[in-house]
Amino acid sequence: MLTDLHCHILPGIDDGARDREVSLQMLGMMKEQGVERVVATPHFYAHREKSVGEFLEKRRAAYESVAESSPLPVILGAEVAIEHGISELPGIEKLAFEGTRLILLELPYRGFESWMAGEIEAVSSEYRLKVILAHVHRYLSYYSKEEIELVLGLDVIPQINNEAFTTFKERRFVKRLMKEGRELAFGSDAHNITDRRPNWDVLRKKTEKGTTEFSDSLANKFRR
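Given the sequence above, the corresponding structure tokens read:
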């Protein structure tokens, strides 16, 4: 079951779909591109939210506005920004993909620091969650080669955006990981239907059949 593990299709909750119409257009586009299941991962920034509970209420309201008309089944999750102390945030385990032990974390867009690894490890060990690390290919411009290797050495599943296959540098990096036999998670990180569209057609064109098999199995493999 082709599964989009990272997308911003819920309307009006972050910088993704601006309204219900765009949300449904995105879901329709995904279905046309072969997607069979979606994990909605709106941004969660601890310093902007009053609490996890309030965020979950906003997420539920956004989901319910499109649920009946959605052409695809939607699992609710979040893209959680890694901040100082995020592992100690009350209720952080509730941001895992619903019904699973998977949680999507996003590194800051700056040089890699040891405390980031500490937060990732704490989230994983303290809550028995499996960390998916969002769009690791995007950090090639921020991290040294040594820092990239440190990130890849963490007990995480690297997540790849479909857009990575549209640029030489990122495509080469991802192809290297695939050649090494690295288990990867795939997602569109779609925010709209224009400049940040789903691009599943790109991934299917640029990769071999079966590329997403491991990724598609994750929601079932790490079910609670």
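The beta strands are 3-7, 37-40, 43-44, 74-76, 79-81, 102-106, 130-133, 157-161, 185-187. Try to locate this feature in the token string yourself.
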